[in-house]
Protein backbone atom coordinates (compact mmCIF):
# COMPACT_ATOMS: atom_id res chain seq x y z
CA UNK A 1 0.00 0.00 0.00
CA UNK A 2 1.33 3.40 -1.04
CA UNK A 3 1.77 6.15 1.56
CA UNK A 4 -0.87 8.93 1.11
CA UNK A 5 1.76 11.57 0.30
CA UNK A 6 3.37 9.21 -2.21
CA UNK A 7 -0.05 8.58 -3.79
CA UNK A 8 -0.54 12.36 -4.16
CA UNK A 9 2.90 12.72 -5.81
CA UNK A 10 2.16 9.87 -8.19
CA UNK A 11 -1.15 11.50 -9.12
CA UNK A 12 0.54 14.86 -9.75
CA UNK A 13 3.12 13.13 -12.00
CA UNK A 14 0.44 11.38 -14.03
CA UNK A 15 -1.93 14.29 -14.45
CA UNK A 16 -2.35 15.25 -18.13
CA UNK A 17 -4.72 18.01 -19.31
CA UNK A 18 -7.83 16.76 -21.10
CA UNK A 19 -7.43 17.01 -24.91
CA UNK A 20 -10.81 18.72 -25.45
CA UNK A 21 -12.77 21.40 -23.56
CA UNK A 22 -15.62 18.92 -22.91
CA UNK A 23 -15.99 15.15 -22.56
CA UNK A 24 -19.04 14.36 -24.67
CA UNK A 25 -18.15 11.15 -26.49
CA UNK A 26 -15.49 8.45 -26.67
CA UNK A 27 -14.17 10.11 -29.82
CA UNK A 28 -12.97 13.07 -27.70
CA UNK A 29 -10.17 10.76 -26.53
CA UNK A 30 -7.16 9.35 -28.37
CA UNK A 31 -5.12 6.21 -27.62
CA UNK A 32 -2.06 7.79 -25.92
CA UNK A 33 -4.29 10.02 -23.81
CA UNK A 34 -6.50 7.06 -22.81
CA UNK A 35 -3.40 5.17 -21.68
CA UNK A 36 -2.28 8.10 -19.52
CA UNK A 37 -5.79 8.65 -18.16
CA UNK A 38 -5.96 4.99 -17.11
CA UNK A 39 -2.53 5.28 -15.45
CA UNK A 40 -3.88 8.26 -13.51
CA UNK A 41 -7.05 6.33 -12.64
CA UNK A 42 -4.90 3.45 -11.33
CA UNK A 43 -3.26 5.89 -8.92
CA UNK A 44 -6.73 7.02 -7.79
CA UNK A 45 -7.70 3.38 -7.17
CA UNK A 46 -4.73 3.12 -4.77
CA UNK A 47 -5.75 6.36 -3.07
CA UNK A 48 -9.38 5.23 -2.77
CA UNK A 49 -8.28 2.08 -0.98
CA UNK A 50 -6.58 4.08 1.76
CA UNK A 51 -8.39 5.34 4.82
CA UNK A 52 -7.59 8.99 3.99
CA UNK A 53 -8.75 9.65 0.46
CA UNK A 54 -9.02 13.40 0.24
CA UNK A 55 -6.95 15.47 -2.17
CA UNK A 56 -7.14 19.16 -3.00
CA UNK A 57 -6.64 19.02 -6.77
CA UNK A 58 -10.07 20.57 -7.32
CA UNK A 59 -10.10 22.88 -4.32
CA UNK A 60 -12.00 26.05 -5.15
CA UNK A 61 -13.75 24.45 -8.11
CA UNK A 62 -17.49 23.89 -8.30
CA UNK A 63 -18.87 20.75 -9.90
CA UNK A 64 -22.58 20.69 -10.73
CA UNK A 65 -24.25 17.33 -11.22
CA UNK A 66 -27.38 17.77 -13.32
CA UNK A 67 -29.33 14.54 -13.69
CA UNK A 68 -32.54 14.74 -15.70
CA UNK A 69 -32.81 10.93 -15.65
CA UNK A 70 -32.74 8.63 -12.65
CA UNK A 71 -29.36 7.38 -11.67
CA UNK A 72 -27.86 5.77 -8.61
CA UNK A 73 -24.34 4.68 -9.35
CA UNK A 74 -23.38 7.27 -11.95
CA UNK A 75 -24.54 10.33 -10.02
CA UNK A 76 -23.18 9.08 -6.70
CA UNK A 77 -19.84 8.12 -8.20
CA UNK A 78 -19.42 11.54 -9.84
CA UNK A 79 -20.30 13.15 -6.52
CA UNK A 80 -17.85 11.01 -4.55
CA UNK A 81 -15.17 11.56 -7.20
CA UNK A 82 -15.53 15.35 -7.09
CA UNK A 83 -15.60 15.41 -3.27
CA UNK A 84 -12.48 13.27 -2.97
CA UNK A 85 -10.71 15.81 -5.17
CA UNK A 86 -11.75 18.64 -2.86
CA UNK A 87 -14.33 20.31 -5.14
CA UNK A 88 -17.56 21.92 -4.00
CA UNK A 89 -20.28 19.69 -5.40
CA UNK A 90 -23.94 20.39 -5.95
CA UNK A 91 -26.12 17.52 -7.16
CA UNK A 92 -29.36 18.83 -8.63
CA UNK A 93 -32.31 16.58 -7.96
CA UNK A 94 -34.12 17.59 -11.12
CA UNK A 95 -37.46 16.51 -9.68
CA UNK A 96 -37.16 19.46 -7.29
CA UNK A 97 -35.94 21.94 -9.89
CA UNK A 98 -37.63 24.42 -12.21
CA UNK A 99 -37.62 21.80 -14.96
CA UNK A 100 -40.75 20.43 -13.32
CA UNK A 101 -42.24 23.89 -13.74
CA UNK A 102 -41.67 23.83 -17.48
CA UNK A 103 -38.25 25.44 -17.82
CA UNK A 104 -36.36 24.12 -20.82
CA UNK A 105 -33.07 22.26 -20.67
CA UNK A 106 -31.22 25.24 -22.11
CA UNK A 107 -32.82 27.76 -19.73
CA UNK A 108 -31.88 25.58 -16.78
CA UNK A 109 -28.31 25.22 -17.99
CA UNK A 110 -27.91 28.92 -18.75
CA UNK A 111 -29.26 29.80 -15.30
CA UNK A 112 -26.90 27.38 -13.59
CA UNK A 113 -24.04 28.59 -15.77
CA UNK A 114 -24.55 32.11 -14.44
CA UNK A 115 -23.54 30.73 -11.03
CA UNK A 116 -20.15 30.01 -12.60
CA UNK A 117 -19.59 26.30 -12.07
CA UNK A 118 -16.33 24.91 -13.46
CA UNK A 119 -17.63 21.51 -14.51
CA UNK A 120 -21.19 20.52 -15.37
CA UNK A 121 -21.93 16.78 -15.33
CA UNK A 122 -25.14 16.12 -17.22
CA UNK A 123 -27.40 13.16 -17.85
CA UNK A 124 -30.44 13.61 -20.07
CA UNK A 125 -32.90 11.38 -21.90
CA UNK A 126 -32.34 13.11 -25.25
CA UNK A 127 -29.43 12.09 -27.47
CA UNK A 128 -27.25 15.14 -28.11
CA UNK A 129 -28.34 17.00 -24.94
CA UNK A 130 -24.83 17.24 -23.49
CA UNK A 131 -23.38 18.52 -26.77
CA UNK A 132 -26.13 21.13 -27.02
CA UNK A 133 -25.46 22.32 -23.47
CA UNK A 134 -21.74 22.54 -24.10
CA UNK A 135 -22.46 25.21 -26.74
CA UNK A 136 -24.51 27.29 -24.31
CA UNK A 137 -22.36 27.31 -21.17
CA UNK A 138 -18.94 28.63 -20.25
CA UNK A 139 -17.78 25.62 -18.23
CA UNK A 140 -16.54 22.14 -19.08
CA UNK A 141 -19.37 19.66 -19.76
CA UNK A 142 -19.14 15.93 -19.03
CA UNK A 143 -21.71 13.68 -20.67
CA UNK A 144 -23.03 11.24 -18.03
CA UNK A 145 -25.38 9.63 -20.56
CA UNK A 146 -27.47 11.24 -23.30
CA UNK A 147 -30.42 9.18 -24.51
CA UNK A 148 -29.21 6.20 -26.45
CA UNK A 149 -26.19 8.08 -27.80
CA UNK A 150 -23.12 7.92 -25.51
CA UNK A 151 -22.00 7.33 -21.94
CA UNK A 152 -18.26 7.86 -22.29
CA UNK A 153 -17.22 7.67 -18.62
CA UNK A 154 -18.90 4.25 -18.42
CA UNK A 155 -16.77 3.05 -21.33
CA UNK A 156 -13.70 4.46 -19.61
CA UNK A 157 -14.41 2.68 -16.33
CA UNK A 158 -15.11 -0.52 -18.24
CA UNK A 159 -11.76 -0.15 -19.97
CA UNK A 160 -10.03 0.44 -16.62
CA UNK A 161 -11.67 -2.71 -15.18
CA UNK A 162 -10.57 -4.72 -18.22
CA UNK A 163 -7.01 -3.40 -18.23
CA UNK A 164 -6.65 -4.30 -14.57
CA UNK A 165 -8.12 -7.79 -15.13
CA UNK A 166 -6.22 -8.65 -18.34
CA UNK A 167 -3.19 -6.35 -18.31
CA UNK A 168 -3.81 -5.22 -21.88
CA UNK A 169 -7.01 -4.64 -23.80
CA UNK A 170 -5.44 -4.84 -27.26
CA UNK A 171 -6.30 -8.17 -28.90
CA UNK A 172 -9.15 -9.07 -26.50
CA UNK A 173 -12.43 -10.20 -28.02
CA UNK A 174 -15.32 -8.51 -26.24
CA UNK A 175 -18.95 -9.51 -26.81
CA UNK A 176 -21.54 -6.86 -26.03
CA UNK A 177 -24.84 -8.66 -25.64
CA UNK A 178 -28.52 -7.90 -25.48
CA UNK A 179 -30.32 -4.61 -25.95
CA UNK A 180 -27.77 -2.86 -28.15
CA UNK A 181 -30.37 -0.68 -29.87
CA UNK A 182 -31.22 1.36 -26.77
CA UNK A 183 -27.78 1.35 -25.21
CA UNK A 184 -25.49 4.36 -24.93
CA UNK A 185 -23.12 2.09 -23.01
CA UNK A 186 -22.78 -0.12 -26.10
CA UNK A 187 -22.07 2.82 -28.41
CA UNK A 188 -19.38 4.32 -26.16
CA UNK A 189 -17.80 0.92 -25.54
CA UNK A 190 -17.67 0.01 -29.23
CA UNK A 191 -15.89 3.29 -29.94
CA UNK A 192 -13.42 3.12 -27.05
CA UNK A 193 -12.64 -0.60 -27.16
CA UNK A 194 -12.05 -0.44 -30.91
CA UNK A 195 -9.82 2.63 -30.44
CA UNK A 196 -7.72 0.64 -27.96
CA UNK A 197 -7.34 -2.40 -30.23
CA UNK A 198 -9.97 -4.81 -28.90
CA UNK A 199 -12.24 -6.77 -31.26
CA UNK A 200 -15.88 -6.11 -30.50
CA UNK A 201 -18.82 -8.37 -31.28
CA UNK A 202 -22.45 -7.41 -30.92
CA UNK A 203 -24.88 -10.19 -30.01
CA UNK A 204 -28.63 -9.80 -29.72
CA UNK A 205 -32.01 -10.47 -31.30
CA UNK A 206 -32.60 -8.64 -34.61
CA UNK A 207 -35.21 -6.39 -32.92
CA UNK A 208 -32.59 -5.12 -30.45
CA UNK A 209 -29.57 -4.70 -32.74
CA UNK A 210 -29.67 -1.52 -34.86
CA UNK A 211 -29.90 -2.13 -38.59
CA UNK A 212 -26.68 -0.22 -39.25
CA UNK A 213 -24.65 -2.05 -36.57
CA UNK A 214 -22.54 -3.81 -39.21
CA UNK A 215 -21.14 -0.36 -40.03
CA UNK A 216 -19.91 0.12 -36.44
CA UNK A 217 -16.84 -1.95 -37.26
CA UNK A 218 -18.07 -4.95 -35.24
CA UNK A 219 -19.15 -8.46 -36.10
CA UNK A 220 -22.88 -8.93 -35.50
CA UNK A 221 -24.43 -12.20 -34.25
CA UNK A 222 -28.05 -13.14 -33.67
CA UNK A 223 -27.18 -16.32 -31.82
CA UNK A 224 -25.52 -16.39 -28.38
CA UNK A 225 -23.64 -19.60 -28.96
CA UNK A 226 -22.09 -18.51 -32.26
CA UNK A 227 -21.26 -15.08 -30.90
CA UNK A 228 -19.73 -16.17 -27.61
CA UNK A 229 -17.31 -18.78 -28.95
CA UNK A 230 -13.78 -17.41 -28.54
CA UNK A 231 -14.72 -14.37 -26.43
CA UNK A 232 -12.54 -13.15 -23.54
CA UNK A 233 -15.21 -10.85 -22.16
CA UNK A 234 -19.01 -11.02 -22.08
CA UNK A 235 -20.58 -7.62 -21.43
CA UNK A 236 -24.29 -7.91 -20.73
CA UNK A 237 -26.67 -4.98 -21.16
CA UNK A 238 -29.88 -4.20 -19.38
CA UNK A 239 -33.09 -4.74 -21.29
CA UNK A 240 -34.08 -1.04 -21.46
CA UNK A 241 -37.85 -1.42 -21.43
CA UNK A 242 -38.31 2.30 -20.67
CA UNK A 243 -36.80 3.23 -24.04
CA UNK A 244 -38.80 0.76 -26.07
CA UNK A 245 -41.62 1.84 -28.27
CA UNK A 246 -43.91 -1.19 -28.13
CA UNK A 247 -42.87 -4.75 -27.33
CA UNK A 248 -39.57 -5.76 -28.91
CA UNK A 249 -39.28 -8.99 -26.93
CA UNK A 250 -42.04 -11.57 -26.47
CA UNK A 251 -41.61 -11.91 -22.69
CA UNK A 252 -38.78 -11.49 -20.22
CA UNK A 253 -38.87 -15.25 -19.52
CA UNK A 254 -38.41 -16.08 -23.14
CA UNK A 255 -35.71 -13.39 -23.39
CA UNK A 256 -33.76 -15.02 -20.57
CA UNK A 257 -34.01 -18.40 -22.24
CA UNK A 258 -32.37 -17.23 -25.46
CA UNK A 259 -30.30 -14.19 -24.42
CA UNK A 260 -29.86 -14.31 -20.63
CA UNK A 261 -26.34 -15.15 -19.47
CA UNK A 262 -26.19 -18.24 -17.30
CA UNK A 263 -23.45 -20.82 -16.67
CA UNK A 264 -24.40 -22.84 -19.69
CA UNK A 265 -24.09 -19.94 -22.12
CA UNK A 266 -20.97 -18.58 -20.42
CA UNK A 267 -19.30 -21.95 -21.02
CA UNK A 268 -19.43 -21.18 -24.78
CA UNK A 269 -16.97 -18.29 -24.27
CA UNK A 270 -13.23 -18.85 -23.68
CA UNK A 271 -12.19 -20.58 -20.46
CA UNK A 272 -11.52 -17.82 -17.92
CA UNK A 273 -13.80 -15.32 -19.70
CA UNK A 274 -14.91 -12.37 -17.57
CA UNK A 275 -18.45 -11.06 -17.22
CA UNK A 276 -19.43 -7.39 -17.09
CA UNK A 277 -22.65 -5.41 -16.66
CA UNK A 278 -22.96 -1.62 -16.26
CA UNK A 279 -25.86 -2.00 -13.81
CA UNK A 280 -28.57 -1.77 -12.79
CA UNK A 281 -29.06 -5.49 -13.47
CA UNK A 282 -32.32 -7.24 -14.14
CA UNK A 283 -31.51 -10.56 -12.50
CA UNK A 284 -33.16 -13.46 -14.25
CA UNK A 285 -33.79 -11.35 -17.36
CA UNK A 286 -30.41 -10.60 -18.98
CA UNK A 287 -28.21 -12.26 -16.37
CA UNK A 288 -28.46 -15.08 -13.86
CA UNK A 289 -27.52 -14.26 -10.24
CA UNK A 290 -25.31 -17.32 -10.12
CA UNK A 291 -23.01 -15.77 -12.76
CA UNK A 292 -23.38 -12.13 -11.69
CA UNK A 293 -22.37 -12.86 -8.09
CA UNK A 294 -19.49 -15.23 -8.81
CA UNK A 295 -16.44 -13.08 -8.12
CA UNK A 296 -14.17 -15.49 -9.98
CA UNK A 297 -15.82 -14.52 -13.27
CA UNK A 298 -17.76 -11.31 -12.61
CA UNK A 299 -16.15 -7.88 -12.84
CA UNK A 300 -19.42 -6.15 -11.93
CA UNK A 301 -18.30 -4.98 -8.47
CA UNK A 302 -14.93 -3.90 -9.87
CA UNK A 303 -16.78 -1.78 -12.42
CA UNK A 304 -18.48 0.12 -9.62
CA UNK A 305 -15.19 0.69 -7.79
CA UNK A 306 -13.42 1.72 -11.01
CA UNK A 307 -16.24 4.17 -11.73
CA UNK A 308 -15.11 6.47 -8.94
CA UNK A 309 -11.43 6.32 -9.94
CA UNK A 310 -12.13 6.80 -13.66
CA UNK A 311 -14.36 9.80 -12.93
CA UNK A 312 -11.73 11.29 -10.61
CA UNK A 313 -9.25 11.00 -13.49
CA UNK A 314 -11.65 12.73 -15.90
CA UNK A 315 -12.47 15.57 -13.47
CA UNK A 316 -8.82 16.10 -12.52
CA UNK A 317 -7.75 16.13 -16.13
CA UNK A 318 -10.50 18.55 -17.21
CA UNK A 319 -9.57 20.79 -14.29
CA UNK A 320 -5.90 20.70 -15.36
CA UNK A 321 -7.01 21.89 -18.80
CA UNK A 322 -9.02 24.73 -17.23
CA UNK A 323 -5.90 25.64 -15.24
CA UNK A 324 -3.93 25.87 -18.46
CA UNK A 325 -6.60 28.01 -20.10
CA UNK A 326 -6.85 30.42 -17.12
C1 LIG B 1 -26.37 2.60 -17.78
C2 LIG B 1 -27.01 3.87 -18.27
O1 LIG B 1 -27.62 4.61 -17.51
O2 LIG B 1 -26.86 4.12 -19.45
N1 LIG B 1 -26.23 2.52 -16.40
C3 LIG B 1 -25.26 3.17 -15.74
O3 LIG B 1 -24.82 4.24 -16.10
N2 LIG B 1 -24.75 2.55 -14.67
C4 LIG B 1 -26.99 1.41 -18.34
C5 LIG B 1 -28.44 1.16 -18.08
O4 LIG B 1 -29.18 2.01 -17.61
O5 LIG B 1 -28.85 0.03 -18.39
TrEMBL record:
<feature type="binding site">
    <location>
        <position position="154"/>
    </location>
    <ligand>
        <name>carbamoyl phosphate</name>
    </ligand>
</feature>
<feature type="binding site">
    <location>
        <position position="184"/>
    </location>
    <ligand>
        <name>L-aspartate</name>
    </ligand>
</feature>
<dbReference type="GO" id="GO:0005829">
    <property type="term" value="C:cytosol"/>
</dbReference>
<dbReference type="InterPro" id="IPR006132">
    <property type="entry name" value="Asp/Orn_carbamoyltranf_P-bd"/>
</dbReference>
<feature type="binding site">
    <location>
        <position position="280"/>
    </location>
    <ligand>
        <name>carbamoyl phosphate</name>
    </ligand>
</feature>
<comment type="pathway">
    <text>Pyrimidine metabolism; UMP biosynthesis via de novo pathway; (S)-dihydroorotate from bicarbonate: step 2/3.</text>
</comment>
<dbReference type="Pfam" id="PF00185">
    <property type="entry name" value="OTCace"/>
</dbReference>
<dbReference type="InterPro" id="IPR002082">
    <property type="entry name" value="Asp_carbamoyltransf"/>
</dbReference>
<comment type="function">
    <text>Reversibly catalyzes the transfer of the carbamoyl group from carbamoyl phosphate (CP) to the N(epsilon) atom of ornithine (ORN) to produce L-citrulline.</text>
</comment>
<feature type="binding site">
    <location>
        <position position="238"/>
    </location>
    <ligand>
        <name>L-aspartate</name>
    </ligand>
</feature>
<keyword id="KW-0665">Pyrimidine biosynthesis</keyword>
<dbReference type="InterPro" id="IPR036901">
    <property type="entry name" value="Asp/Orn_carbamoylTrfase_sf"/>
</dbReference>
<dbReference type="Pfam" id="PF02729">
    <property type="entry name" value="OTCace_N"/>
</dbReference>
<dbReference type="GO" id="GO:0016597">
    <property type="term" value="F:amino acid binding"/>
</dbReference>
<dbReference type="InterPro" id="IPR006130">
    <property type="entry name" value="Asp/Orn_carbamoylTrfase"/>
</dbReference>
<feature type="binding site">
    <location>
        <position position="101"/>
    </location>
    <ligand>
        <name>L-aspartate</name>
    </ligand>
</feature>
<dbReference type="InterPro" id="IPR006131">
    <property type="entry name" value="Asp_carbamoyltransf_Asp/Orn-bd"/>
</dbReference>
<feature type="binding site">
    <location>
        <position position="74"/>
    </location>
    <ligand>
        <name>carbamoyl phosphate</name>
    </ligand>
</feature>
<comment type="function">
    <text>Catalyzes the condensation of carbamoyl phosphate and aspartate to form carbamoyl aspartate and inorganic phosphate, the committed step in the de novo pyrimidine nucleotide biosynthesis pathway.</text>
</comment>
<dbReference type="GO" id="GO:0006520">
    <property type="term" value="P:amino acid metabolic process"/>
</dbReference>
<comment type="similarity">
    <text>Belongs to the aspartate/ornithine carbamoyltransferase superfamily. ATCase family.</text>
</comment>
<feature type="domain" description="Aspartate/ornithine carbamoyltransferase Asp/Orn-binding">
    <location>
        <begin position="171"/>
        <end position="317"/>
    </location>
</feature>
<dbReference type="GO" id="GO:0004070">
    <property type="term" value="F:aspartate carbamoyltransferase activity"/>
</dbReference>
<feature type="binding site">
    <location>
        <position position="279"/>
    </location>
    <ligand>
        <name>carbamoyl phosphate</name>
    </ligand>
</feature>
<feature type="binding site">
    <location>
        <position position="123"/>
    </location>
    <ligand>
        <name>carbamoyl phosphate</name>
    </ligand>
</feature>
<feature type="binding site">
    <location>
        <position position="151"/>
    </location>
    <ligand>
        <name>carbamoyl phosphate</name>
    </ligand>
</feature>
<protein>
    <recommendedName>
        <fullName>Aspartate carbamoyltransferase</fullName>
        <ecNumber>2.1.3.2</ecNumber>
    </recommendedName>
</protein>
<dbReference type="GO" id="GO:0044205">
    <property type="term" value="P:'de novo' UMP biosynthetic process"/>
</dbReference>
<keyword id="KW-0808">Transferase</keyword>
<comment type="subunit">
    <text>Heterododecamer (2C3:3R2) of six catalytic PyrB chains organized as two trimers (C3), and six regulatory PyrI chains organized as three dimers (R2).</text>
</comment>
<feature type="binding site">
    <location>
        <position position="73"/>
    </location>
    <ligand>
        <name>carbamoyl phosphate</name>
    </ligand>
</feature>
<dbReference type="GO" id="GO:0006207">
    <property type="term" value="P:'de novo' pyrimidine nucleobase biosynthetic process"/>
</dbReference>
<feature type="domain" description="Aspartate/ornithine carbamoyltransferase carbamoyl-P binding">
    <location>
        <begin position="22"/>
        <end position="163"/>
    </location>
</feature>
Amino acid sequence: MTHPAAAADLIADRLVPFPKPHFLAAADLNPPFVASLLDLADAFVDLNRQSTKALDLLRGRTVLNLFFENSTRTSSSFEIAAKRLGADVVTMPVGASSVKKGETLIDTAVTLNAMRPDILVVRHGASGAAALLSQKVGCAVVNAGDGRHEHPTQALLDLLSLRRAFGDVGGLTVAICGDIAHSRVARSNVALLSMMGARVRLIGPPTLVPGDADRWGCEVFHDMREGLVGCDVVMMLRLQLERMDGALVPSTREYFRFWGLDREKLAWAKAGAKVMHPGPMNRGVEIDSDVADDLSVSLIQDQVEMGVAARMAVLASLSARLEGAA
